[in-house]
Amino acid sequence: MHTCLKTKTLVREVQYDNFVDQERGLDGWKQLYRQLSPGAFEGHIAALEWDEISLYRETVNQKMENFYRVPDGSICVGFSLGKRLSMAGQANAIGAGTGMIHVADEEYHIFTDSHADYIMLTLPDTALSEEIARGSNPIPPQASHGIADWMLTLIESARQGLAQQPVLDLAPDLLIDRISLWARDATRHRLRKSPRGLMSDILAACDTLPFEKLSVSHLSKVLERDRAELRACCLERTGMTLDDMLKGRRLSEVHRCLRLSDPRDTKVSDISMEFGYYHWGRFSQTYRAMFGERPSDTLRRDAPKHH
After folding, report:
1. Which domains does the chain have, with CATH numbers?
2. pTM of the model
3. DSSP per residue over 146-202, as a string?
4. Per residue in 73-91, pLDDT tens?
């Protein structure tokens, strides 16, 4: 993890090489990441901050699962700039340019493709009307009125030192004005949860099963559904195979446990066995292929820093 402060432009930037560190990178947010595709993790957060308003750009190179809540007393207007993602409770995939109003009393659950890219504005829930602050479903790009591009231009010009200080001083008011105009249309897409579907059943079962039983065959027995049906549903909803998703979930929890443990009193073999990996050589090889480092490398990292 590398931090770069650009005080003149108010931009704070952090480069990440570990998803457990990046999930702590947004002030006040509660997040849990899981890496679902193999390879070394690379992520980045840039923040343009004022007293109560923050404009973020976040990127992640791997396919991820993410649970998140916005800070208490805040709302977030966010746009996906990268590849498609899927959200639990939403029937359709979310494409590039799609926006959404997130509220503090909701937990959100998404699956992202590789090279995810977001632009997000967090602000007090009192800054917009009560109607707007109740949240929304995803809003298609054609209804965004170019606001995502405008937010992106603002933070990138600040990062590069091109934005004049008077513009940066005025930016909070400009942002609220633009968001409030856009959000009047956005509230027509009121936040509604879709009827519970098969993917929701799969995820609920995953959350209750012990890690050593996270397999397609066991899910098939528990849910009384054909394996092919489960695999087809996961591929359609998340863009990845169910087998890969289950492997990524399990290995990510091993990674998290190693990342947060004290190397002075922790054995990698004890943690791997706790998650049902009983063959050391096979586990070590699988882990390194997934995260680009050995389990012992993860364990020896410096303690994560909170932001």
Report:
1. 2-186 (2.60.120.10), 198-299 (1.10.10.60)
2. 0.84
3. THHHHHHHHHHHHHTT-S-HHHHHHHHHHHHHHHHHHHHHHTTS---PPPP-HHHHH
4. 999 988 988 877 787 766 6
